[in-house]
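Researcher: We're teaching a course module on how sequence relates to structure. For the next exercise, students receive a sequence and then see the predicted structure as tokens, so they can try to spot secondary structure elements on their own. Here is the exercise chain.
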Amino acid sequence: MNLIISILSGAIVYAVSVMYAGIGETFSERAGIMNLGVEGIMLMGAVSGYITAVNTQNLAVSFLVVLLTGAVFGLVFAFLTVTLQADQTVCGMAMLTFGTGLSGFLGKDVTGVAANLKFQTIPIPLLKDIPVIGPIFFQQNILVYAMYVIVPLSLFYIYRTKYGLYLRALGENPAALDSAGMNIFAMRYAYVILGCSMIAVSGSCVTLANTNFWSPGMTAGKGWIAFALVAFSSWNPLKLTLGALLFGFISCLGSNLQIYLPSVPTEIYSAMPYIATIIAFILATGNFRKVHTAQPAALCKPYDRESR
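Model: And here is the predicted structure for the students to work with:
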């Protein structure tokens, strides 16, 4: 039972480290802007937060720097894709390359340096004592607890508010919103910046919560898993949560199987969550399903008011 609790508790931690990025990308793509640079922005969030933690020993300041880093990248990406109407795929790959390279350069001085500062586990009184459920859900850090609130709020916002209706329309038919007097460009800027800020938070989960160190490329593909989860979930935060938990479980299961099956190469266990991601992505998006895709109709399509 202790092993099962350990695996499930670890699965939640792993899931949250990709869920911030996944939900952020969901908002961006719901607005019609696809960002392939998730991994690079995650790395920038990870390194900026860690550098600040090492130098200030203040988690609040570190977290604000992470949000600011994501917002700056979001502003640049929005300027390229919304204002200049550049190709979103190319801009996303540029963000990926730039973020990966810059994070490695900036993190040289803190590679191997212990910050001695991280988001600690905060057991919730009474709830932590519930058998099985308590140790799994209520002995986590604050970033995990925040996600317990963010997921239902995201669902409520997207599907139960007028602003969520505007968001869905923004990704489906921006011309209709423009005709109604909405500022399409300002709305897309806002959601892209929000999305990139949440992506950066995912990166900070790795360096400021899950571990206590920095090394180049340490997100190890989590950005791509988050990106794939968005399509896997049909742009629905609840389904994304379930997908993230599944991949978190597979990752933690692989780590524990190494103890019981040491003869199997560790690379096999490391590849398990990525193999599962590919399979799930194919099953969720493949044309062989013969079903209508939930992809926003205006995704990756620059909006030009003059062409209406």
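Model: If you want an answer key for the exercise: The longest strand covers residues 122-123. The two ends are 61 Å apart (CA to CA).
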